[in-house]
Structures are given as structure tokens and as C-alpha cells.
Design goal:
Blueprint (H helix, E strand, L loop, with lengths): L1 H22 L3 E2 L11 E3 L4 H11 L5 H19 L4 H18 L9 H16 L8 H14 L8 H18 L6 E2 L1 H23 L9 H16 L12 H8 L4 H24 L5 H31 L1
Parallel strand pairs: 2-3
Antiparallel strand pairs: 1-2
């Protein structure tokens, strides 16, 4: 019953935000780098930090991670309204990491682990931030990870928190997973969700001792890494908005439905998550197997990317 109340409350909060965003003209204006062509309300992902706040008051979440999510959410929301320099955004993410480290007792781990996790988490947050703009892809991909985390016995105590975050994704998805989206998550949504997912990834790996769960992020992780490498080779600024991800090529140049692309990405990741859980239960998810799966997925990704780009090039010549 209380999950129904949470869902209704989240719907109310989202509709209230829409009125505020409409009144103060908080909209996403399409440009040459955008994957959409209509003015759309920005910042609908403000629901995610508020869902975490609700979870905190219900006793589902600790104060350090709640503060971390809310902090990066507030700074990112300000950035959605009035673009900030990289310094305040970076500082908020560093403080968010320190709060995550405190919550997960990372400060008791060997010192070399902290900068390693920091680099991975900050990289993940900023890569994940580019997902917003293709209708449904960010929220469906987040749900695939949340479902994966929820099926792990190691996360049983975190299940109410995962369900609450999942409900916020479903409410946001109701307005975002459409041919013409009502709202985009904005930085407030994508960055706060990236931190939430990163927190659960770190927690799951630490508590289980199983690095193989990194495969829960494999589809978009491979896409992001390969895209960054390509942009570095082309001497492009990797911190600027772009349309170089595979899903962006599929949506923009190839003309496939945003929702279809989003469903395929999330469904493929969900299949991988299920396979990873199966392998771990069979005690077969070794580092060698994990590396092998990543290698095969990377080859498959490169093949698909090459085919798509080649078709786009041939199409542009005709």
C-alpha cells in the first residue's frame, strides 16, 4: 500500500514541477547537436532526488548517500536553469563521491582504491549525462540496472530503496517514453541517477566481492568509451555535447524511433544482467569470463557501429 502512496506522491510532484517549469520557461531548446526538434520541458528528472528524499524519511536510505544525491541534484538543477562553469559541477561530484565513500566505509580500504573509484565514478556520471535527449533511453537503461541490482540477494536490505527509485523511474518514464516526450530528465535527473546507479554498483561489488557485476553497465559503458576514443582521435572536445553515440546515429542519421532504440538498449542490457546473475549463481563469473564477455560485446558493438556508419555514408552520397 505504501508503494502506491509513494507512486501517487511522485506523480503529484512531477505534475507540480511541470507547472513551475512551464511558468518559469525551464525548457530544452533544440540545436544542431540535439536529437529532438521540439521545445520540451527540462528537469523532469528532479523526481529522482526527491524519491531518494522520500526514501530517507521512510528509513530506506542513509543520510550520506541522500545528501550526496540531493547535492549533485541541486547543483545540476541550477545548471539546467543557468549554465554553470565546470568547477561547481565538478566540486559537487567530488563531495558526492566523498559522501558515498563515507557511507560505504571506503575510507577504511587501501588508499590507492579511492582515486581509482573516484575516476570511474566521475567518468560514469559524466558519460551517463549524455544519455538524456533520446526519448526513454536514460530511464529504461536505469530501470534495467535497478532490476538487476534488485535480484541480487546481497541487496535484499536495499530492496525498498531500489523499489522507490524504480517507481520514480516509472513515473518519469510515463512522461518521457513517448514519440513526443513531455519532459527530459535534464542534468538534475541524469547526473543524480548516474550517482545512484554508481553507488549501487560500488556497494554491490564491495559486498559481494564480485567485479563481474560491472557488466550491468556494459552496453552503455562500451558505447561511451568507444565514442570518447573516437572523439579524442578526431581531436574533438569530449566535454561538449555531441551526436556521436551509436544510439544517436541510429536516431538522427538513420531515422529509427527513439523509443524503439531505447527499448532495444534496455532489453539487451537486461538480458546481459540476467546472464551475469545466472553465471554468478553457478559460480562461473570469474574475472576471465567477465573480460571475455566484455571483449565479445565490444567486438559486436564495433561491428554494428561500423555497419551503421557505413550505411549513413552511403545514404549521404545518394
Amino acid at each position: 500500500m505504501h508503494y502506491i502512496i509513494i507512486t501517487v506522491s511522485l506523480f503529484f510532484l512531477e505534475l507540480l514541477y511541470f507547472r513551475i517549469a512551464d511558468k518559469y520557461n525551464i525548457i530544452d531548446k533544440p540545436n544542431e547537436r540535439s536529437s529532438h526538434s521540439c521545445f520540451t520541458l527540462r528537469g523532469g528528472g528532479i523526481l529522482f532526488p526527491f524519491a531518494f528524499l522520500i526514501a530517507f524519511f521512510l528509513g530506506y536510505a542513509s543520510w550520506p548517500i541522500t545528501l550526496a544525491v540531493f547535492l549533485v541534484g541541486v547543483v545540476s538543477f541550477v545548471d539546467d536553469i543557468r549554465p554553470l562553469s565546470q568547477l561547481p559541477r565538478f566540486c559537487s561530484q567530488i563531495i558526492g563521491f566523498l559522501l558515498v565513500a563515507y557511507d560505504l566505509n571506503l575510507l577504511a580500504e587501501p588508499l590507492w582504491i579511492l582515486p581509482f573509484i573516484l575516476i570511474l565514478l566521475i567518468g560514469w556520471i559524466n558519460a551517463f549525462n549524455f544519455m538524456d535527449g533520446i526519448n526513454g533511453i536514460m530511464v529504461l537503461y536505469a530501470l534495467s540496472a535497478i532490476v538487476g541490482f534488485s535480484f541480487l540477494p546481497i541487496n535484499e536490505s536495499s530492496l525498498p530503496l531500489l523499489i522507490t527509485v524504480g517507481l520514480s523511474c516509472m513515473v518519469f518514464g510515463f512522461f518521457n517514453i513517448r514519440t513526443k516526450a513531455k519532459t527530459f530528465a535534464g542534468d538534475v535527473g541524469s547526473i543524480s541517477m548516474a550517482l545512484i546507479l554508481g553507488y549501487f554498483m560500488i556497494k554491490t561489488i564491495l559486498n559481494s566481492g564480485q567485479f563481474g557485476y560491472i557488466l550491468f553497465f556494459s552496453i552503455f559503458g562500451i558505447d561511451a568509451v568507444i565514442t570518447i576514443i573516437n572523439r579524442i582521435i578526431k581531436r574533438e572536445n569530449i566535454f561538449e555535447a555531441h551526436r556521436s553515440h551509436l544510439y544517436q546515429y541510429l536516431a538522427n542519421e538513420s531515422g529509427y524511433s527513439h523509443v524503439l532504440i531505447s527499448v532495444i538498449y534496455a532489453a539487451f542490457q537486461l538480458l546481459i544482467n540476467g546472464f551475469v546473475i545466472y553465471l554468478d549463481r553457478k559460480e562461473s563469473l570469474s574475472l576471465f569470463v567477465t573480460s571475455g564477455i566484455l571483449f565479445i560485446l565490444t567486438l559486436f558493438y564495433l561491428l554494428v557501429r561500423a555497419v551503421v556508419i557505413r550505411k549513413i555514408a552511403l545514404k549521404s552520397r545518394t
